[in-house]
Amino acid sequence: MSRTARRIVLAVWGLVLAGATQACGQASPATHDKPFWRAIAANKYQIPPNEKPFALAQELSSYLASPDPELRDDLTYSILTVWIVNRQQFSPEELIQLYERWTANLHAGLGETGTDSVLGRSFSALCLSSLAERELKTPFLGEARYRALITAALGYLRDEKDLRGFDPVKSWIHATAHTADLLAALAAHPLFRKEDQAAVLQAITRRLATASEVFLYGEQDRLGNVVAVIVNRADFDLNGFQSWLADLDATDQSVWKDLPPKLQPLTQFQNDSYMLRAVVAQILQRQSTPASLAAQQAVLKSLQRR
Length: 306
Known about the structure:
Layout: H1 3-23, H2 34-42, H3 53-61, H4 69-86, H5 92-105, H6 117-137, H7 143-159, E1 166-167, E2 171-172, H8 175-187, H9 194-210, H10 219-231, H11 238-253, H12 263-284, H13 290-304
Antiparallel strand pairs: 1-2
Helix pairs in contact: 2-4, 3-5, 4-6, 5-6, 6-8, 7-8, 8-10, 9-10, 9-11, 9-12, 10-12, 11-12, 11-13, 12-13
């Protein structure tokens, strides 16, 4: 058989195999254009006829890294959140598949700065916060996965290098804020332990200490919300909180040893101060307890010294 004939035979077999795969229902998943997703949002997030919700969720997951802000944020995140949190659309097994995919995304390109890879990581963290909200309503993770998610969230908060909040072309990036939303949902869970409180507070301190610039897009507010969620827990560790706050104060006050102050310690001082102001505001929005009032007073005293 000539080389040309062999090529023809191979091509024919390729078409046959492709047809067989499609017949078995194993064809590559169809993709939809942006007007399709816009129509879903416009129709109050109803599932279109003859569409499988989980297949749509899997397709949407591939758009979390899109540089197109409308597709990534306005459509993908919004649709997924409505389906996951409000409509409780997916089975526990399907939710776990999304959990596994989005948790893995937190490591994709981690360490890069100034590239689009941060979008997939950041918006996966945000979608994981939706899963954590769903978990609060109808638990599906189990203790092992819940604890793995806390570890993943703390690791991502620590290791993300791209701290851009907003880009005029790509819109919201917001890795720190999105991870804070995830931690806030996790901190409200019954499985959140007393030792987790200290770990999360220390992680917030570390994130603010390692930022090279003062956050400009509400990141301190979102981190302050995490602190307020912890403060309002029934098992809130007030002594541990006061110790954390004292250490934060001691570190921040050391900035004034140098005149003029050095830039990095001053940046940390400003980020910490804005975060503490947010903590007070967030505590005031919640029902008071003796412990939360004590925490509020401690933070106010810290702010008076700044």
